[in-house]
Amino acid sequence: MIQFVPKTVIRHNFSQAMSKMYQTEVPLYKELIDLVADINSDTLEKDDELKRQLTNTGELERINLERHGAIRLGLPSELTTMRRLFAVMDMHPVGYYDLSSAGVPVHSTAFRAINSAELQASPFRVFCSLLRLELIKDDKLRQIALEILQNRQIFSDGVLFLIEKSEKEGGLSSDDADLFVTEAIKTFKWHKTSPISKAFYDKLLSQHRLIADVVGFYGPHINHLTPRTLDIDAVQDEMGSRGIAAKEIIEGPPRRKCPILLRQTSFKALNEAIIFTGDGREEGYHTARFGEIEQRGIALTPKGRSLYDKLLNKARASLKFAPEKDPNAYYQALTETFTAFPDEYQALYNDGLAYFYYQLNDHFSDKDTSDKSVQSLLDNDILRLEPIVYEDFLPVSAAGIFQSNLGEDTNPGYEGKSNQDSFEQDLGIKVYDECDLYQAMMDKSLEECLAKLG
Ligand code: OOG
Ligand code: NI
Asked: Which ligand is nearest to the CA of 401?
């Protein structure tokens, strides 16, 4: 019988290969990684409580691994195959994000591992967007764009063969797994040449920079990778001191004692030389690739999430200017508004705002455990709570990341309806609901504790 390589191992190797490729392609990204690693070790040295928490949840070991990357696809058939490619590594589509209302003509999901053990072993995720061609108003342009996309093949024969083999046989042998990583990575590499003419590129650009980024290239180059930082404010400041052009504001919630959801920032996309080959050889430029960092906090329940959305909107609405115009005033408005969001883990738990793991304290066997109600086990210090980290994305933040890396040409928003059904049809399956997954993690942790208590 063939011995299959665990899918988690393939995912880990894939993320390492992707990181290596991107650091070579974008040397500034390597600088960012080094900066983040420095700040993470400083932060851990200063904060024992954080270190204890990360040890208990098993995250300490994976702290300096990249947490996500992002790609943009052009056709439904590309999305279907991409879903199958990620399934080889046990990465499944979680969540549906509609970015069209924020002026970005895509809808998206995130491919990631879906249970605690798998996330622990390799947390790598890919935010994957599909261009919504139907939002291009110009009929002729849309038709030509479609034909160009239909003429490209973003997957190598080798990877297509191995995807099928893994599906048929249930896994890949060690040699096949190595080959799979090599072949899969090819899809995400950068191309210095574009198959279209510069004039057509400019036409696409005038519709939306993102349309040019997808239709103008041979494949869905990885457009950023994102390590996890333990102190995003420190990295943002330090980028400034080191002369790295940072995005103006940190997206997401304000700095808090108990971090929630996700805060993100990035360095601005580079302007890179391209040779357009659609009409002879023409020199030009394209702006797409950047480096991002993220700081993650606890996952929120639907109740917590709706409070977050409400407060974020309130803070933004209270400003008479775009947040980017005066970051400090924006942070101050955020901080004030978010005083309405409890900032103690116990309160987040009591109010049902966030998801937690239940864990047994070390000394539990010395205690009276006859009353097995959760409340009494918590009160008696037999059970403790540890935050479940948010593993997903935020549409308002994602739109901010997109915009800041697509140049200044802001778009007021598309009227096209949000269309999860059509996205899922293109994907070939339904996306997982992230809240169901967090709830399952929480429930399972309790079951395991109760089983140990007998
Ligand atoms: C994806 C932007 C979204 C995030 O971290 O929110 C994203 C893109 O620019 O393609 O990666
Ligand atoms: Ni990102």
From this structure: 1
Give the domain ranges of the chain. 7-299+355-453
pLDDT of residue 454: 83
> What number of residues does the chain have?
454
Mutational pocket test of ligand 1: of 79, 127, 403, the residue with most ligand atoms within 8 Å of the beta carbon: 127
> What sign results for the dihedral spanned by CA atoms 430, 432, 435, 439?
positive
**Residue of the nearest CA to atom 7 in ligand 1?**
398
| Residue 91 CB burial class (10 angstroms; 0-12, 13-18, ≥19) | buried
CATH code of the region 7-299+355-453: 3.10.180.80
In sequence order, the 6+-apart residues with CB closer than 8 A to the CB of 63 are 40, 44, 54, 228, 230
What is the per-residue pLDDT for 403?
81
Between the alpha carbon of residue 153 and those of residues 74, 130, 324, 374, 415, the distances in Å are: 11, 16, 39, 54, 31
Contact in structure between 130 and 426 (CB atoms under 8 Å):
yes
Q: What is the pLDDT of residue 58?
A: 79
- The two three-digit tokens of residue 350, written as one number: 């009591």
How many CB atoms within 10 Å of residue 188?
20
**Which numbered atom of ligand 1 lies nearest the CA of 129?**
10
Instruction: List 127's β-bridge partners, or say none.
Output: 70, 110
70 CA to middle of ligand 1, Å?
6
Extract long-range pairs of 448-451: CB within 8 Å, 24+ residues apart.
449/358, 449/359, 449/360, 449/377, 449/383, 450/372
Whole-number CA gyration radius for the chain: 23
Bridge partners (DSSP) listed for residue 108? 97, 129
Question: How far apart are alpha carbons 26 and 402 in whole angstroms?
Answer: 18
Phi-psi region of 389 (alpha: psi -120 to 50; beta: other; left: phi over 0): beta
368 in Cβ contact with 248 (< 8 Å): no
Give per-10-residue mean pLDDT for the chain (454 aa): 92 96 94 94 93 84 88 98 98 95 91 91 95 90 95 98 98 98 98 96 92 96 95 93 90 96 94 96 95 95 97 94 92 96 97 97 84 91 94 91 72 72 96 97 96 90
**Model pLDDT, residue 257:** 94
